[in-house]
Amino acid sequence: MLGAVLQTRAPAPPHGVIVAERGDIVPAMRLLTVDGAATGIPKAWAGRTTLVNLWASWCAPCLKEMPELEAFAREQGANGTQVVGIALDDAASAQAMLQRLRIAYPNLVDAPGPADAGVRLGNPAGVLPYTVLVSAEGRVLKTRIGPFESRQDIADWTQH
């Protein structure tokens, strides 16, 4: 319900920007890793269920949940749900925070704005943290606005 309320107050995305909804294929995007390498999504995630967490270095609830996401990612290993972060931030700030928090799961960077990765992944209100569960086939399974409270909270949410 919170998602519906936030979407009603969100400005319309710019003309031509595809906003994925539940069941839709994630729109193709090219984002950079924090190290500057170009990555095509959702192609980079093909074949594995992926938890995509949008965050920023200035977002306290984002930073609080990231160690739990890291622990979840380690538990999942090479065959479980993969975790990918997308920082709506500048690369230097994102990289510094990832190092400080010792986050090893892959992270991409996008400039915040009306057509950023968060908007395209179904969050036109820009509320962070925002998480999307993407199927192995690249479809949006579910979304979540707000932080996870624990590793168990993450595990429960990823059951689809």
Automatic annotation (TrEMBL):
The answer to keyword DNA-binding applying to this record is: no
Give the protein name, as stated in the record: TlpA family protein disulfide reductase
Q: Which GO terms describe its molecular function?
A: disulfide oxidoreductase activity
- What keyword terms does UniProt attach to this protein? Cytochrome c-type biogenesis, Disulfide bond, Redox-active center
What domain of life is recorded for the organism?
Bacteria
Tell me which PROSITE patterns the record gives.
THIOREDOXIN_1, THIOREDOXIN_2
User: Which InterPro entries does the record cross-reference, listed alphabetically?
Assistant: Redoxin, Thioredoxin-like_sf, Thioredoxin_CS, Thioredoxin_domain, Thioredoxin_ResA/DsbE_sf
Q: Keyword Disulfide bond, does the record have it?
A: yes
Q: One GO term of the cellular component aspect?
A: cell envelope
Q: Where in the cell is it found?
A: Cell envelope
Which positions fall inside the Thioredoxin domain?
Answer: 20-160
Please, one GO biological process term?
A: cytochrome complex assembly
